[in-house]
Amino acid sequence: MPLAPTTPASLVDQAIAGMRALLESGEWEVGTRVPPEPALAAALGVSRNTVREAVKALAHLGLLQVRRGDGTYVAATTDMQALMRKQLARVDIAHLLEVRHAIEVRAAALAAERRTAADLASMDAIMDRRRQAVLDGDGPAFIDADVDFHCAVVAAAHNPLLVELYDGLVETLRASIEHPGAADVLAAEHDAVLDAIRAGDPAVAATASADLLDHVVP
């Protein structure tokens, strides 16, 4: 049976699939600028017009953001993350904070049950970075490490849906964190979460996570 000829629509679908693969693999991270049309066309084996249509489609879905005169940037890496991003733009902040509390506390309990040696090593390294950023007075590095710690706790729960839901909150979480200056008043609370996860105690991990969030979530 002969193959049907490739149609323009299927070429656009092919380009969309190729870009989705780059998003989902982590090669294109949120906030990064995607390559220009000529480079994308060459990489995907399609025309620039096809790339343009594919970008429009992904921008409509909320995965990409086209900035006139600047380029195209990654807004989300999955459909769930894109949906969360759209919802967060119009929800009440109190509702958002309740969702964060629900996800993080449950994730901490699951992490205590499911964490691996690699998970613990990752969280230890992140906490070292967080402490060093405080000593160095490096605000951006502190914020990166703080966000990474919360993400690592959720990742250690080994529930892909929880991870995807939480990924949708990361931008808002990052914007809410302030550099503590010379004294990190929440260091002990973060350590308590990690210690409980390391000890494999779900109840204590959940309590420690709730206590931490009670200090940072109004």
TrEMBL record:
Q: Which domain of life is it from?
A: Bacteria
An example molecular function term from Gene Ontology annotations:
DNA binding
Recorded hits in InterPro entries, A to Z, give: GntR_C (IPR011711), TF_FadR/GntR_C (IPR008920), Tscrpt_reg_HTH_GntR (IPR000524), WH-like_DNA-bd_sf (IPR036388), WH_DNA-bd_sf (IPR036390)
Q: Name one Pfam family in it.
A: GntR
UniProt domain HTH gntR-type: residue ranges: 9-77
The organism's taxonomy opens as: Bacteria, Bacillati, Actinomycetota, Actinomycetes, Propionibacteriales
Asked whether the keyword DNA-binding is assigned, the reply is: yes
Q: Which PANTHER family match?
A: REGULATORY PROTEIN GNTR HTH, TRANSCRIPTIONAL REGULATOR, GNTR FAMILY
Name of this chain's protein: DNA-binding FadR family transcriptional regulator
Give the keywords, sorted. Answer: DNA-binding, Transcription, Transcription regulation
